[in-house]
Amino acid sequence: MPDFIARQNAERLRKRLSSEMRFREPPAFSKLARSTLEIALVTGVIARLYRSVILTHGDRDSGFYLAATFFIGASFVLMMATAHLSRFPLREWLWRAPAFAALEGAFEMLASLLLIAVRREPLGTTAATFQDWPRMALDVLPWRIAVICLVATLLALTVKLVRYSILRREHAAWSEGTVGSGLK
Asked: Residue range 35-55: average pLDDT?
């Protein structure tokens, strides 16, 4: 019986939330966001190209400028991870978040290889070489996985907390009405 009530409450919550929010997104983006491989490819390539452009054409003397552009790049990667994870139930996030992070980092490093081949990959004040690439990959991949998994965990906890508080409030209102009607 508790499973039936929990399932019924979850279904009512889903219907209520979906009826209040009307957000239309292009079908192509929705399809892209459901594919771990495709969204990781797009995110990795754009993130690496953005980093390359900022570091080669930006104001290197301004720490604020570099911090702001780093924040924009990190926000982009995390928003794309969130856009991908939001399409799936929480129990799937356990494998989807690390998979997205690993694929995003791998595609970013492949983009880095292409930029090194055309001598456009910055490393400090010089251009990176193929000998620098393994060290760059070992620097990028663990950080991507750790940060994306941490943000996914915090996001999952937030989702659980919000769902719990909404269901608790709805259950209190539902119980109050049924208990009162049963006593009369």
From this structure: 94
